[in-house]
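Entry:
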Amino acid sequence: MPSRSIALLAVLLIVGAVGHGRAIAASASDGAAIYAQHCAQCHGADRLGGTGPALLPESLERLRPAAARVVIRDGRTATQMPAFGDLLDGAAIDAVADLIHAPTRISPIWGRSEIETSHIAEPSAGQGVDRPVFAADPLNLFVVVESGDHHITLLDGDRFEPIHRFPTRYALHGGPKFSPDGRYVYLASRDGWIAKYDLYALALVAEIRAGINTRNLALSGDGRFVAVANYLPHTLVLLDARDLALIDVLKVEDARRTRTSRVSAVYQARPRKSFILALKDIAEIWEISTDETARPVYPGLVHSHEQGAVEAVGARRGLFALRRIAIDQPLDDFQFDESYRHLLGSSRETGRTAVVNLNVGRQIGWVELDGLPHLASGITWTQGGRRVMATPHLSRGEISVFDTSDWRLVGSVKLPGPGFFLRSHEATPYAWTDSMLGKQRDGIHIIDKRSLTLVRTLTPAPGRTAAHVEFTRDGRHALVSVWDMDGALIVYDAQTFAEVKRLPMVRPSGKYNVFNKISLSEGTSH
């Protein structure tokens, strides 16, 4: 990865040039000058990033000013970020921290030219490799995101032994996507870098920077296209999944072209052969076709729908045809029923959950749910002959369960505090969740899916945050993360709840089983 060497050289040049000087004193007004001298070489004169990540409010949502001051002073262990505590005094560090959390005077531009220029391809990666270079089952492989030092560990899901570890871009998003055969994994960082990695050859295939502040990516059901959802700029970027070459940049704006929107998330809707977009700022849901033979979309009035004699204006058809679905308010968190006919969407602003029929293209009702349901972490299963959907809540210690036939609340499970993730597997009668957002953040809670009762609470590491469960391919084991720099990945027997193994990890924020993801297991997110 050429950029890694360049970044390291840049850091060495900076440290060497100023390492023997006295600490620089500064007032808050000197932030820009200090940034230009010490930060711009890696992070870009415009703060859009370079060998280091972008330093903008939109890309620093998870790094508060106080935490930023610590990073500037002490650096980041096992990264290319050096410590500046010996070079800058407290006022100078404050000035830089204030600067990077302030909006830029001119809206940053990241369009087709910038995206294409950032493209890095490794044409020889994986050539001649037609099977994994390791002995483990490639479909029972776990991709473990270690956010503490920006690495990924590939874990054998049978022996629970690491196979390989490699560096990633800064602030990798926790939702990697896999090609339909499980060979390739696609990764997105918060500062817009998209990577394709060959799990068979253990090699990076390509990278491209699709945005400045990126929310997530989705891979089309046939594995041909990558869609990238951006907060900044307000775009959806479409890439060729083979080498991440740019296909198109779609400006996200309302039907009247009067207002643009951040894209909260993009989802693959495999049965529909489309991408579904959640928009943060306009009251629409977008569906974008990934099928050349898709039926036409008519954005305006249609005089006649008679086959062979349709009378309408402005039809869109085929690949990447855009369909807009008007809704009552913007929705930024989605979950789909098993058929992908219905979508549940929640709004953090109103606390209400909308039910949208994607086939007819309109909202059909509301589900009254307070406590900020985290629908993207919801799962489904069959209970008593009916399909149900369950979701955790971000501000209330409870799991809510719905009947997907009429969206009626059929039960709930009280928890010690609010949580973020809910996971299960077809082979187990239990669902596992956390309470990481509450005072008892060290608990993993196990729910009987048949009776909707809490049957066990595990404490993997007392006093330390436990979260994000993922099951092995066969559902016999559950893997839990301890979210600390000196954290761990803990393997449990999914039937007896006994600990099987504990592996040290650097803040393992998530782990993802290849088979469960590509098979659309009902117990995990997609």
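Residues 173 and 189 are 5 Å apart (CA to CA).
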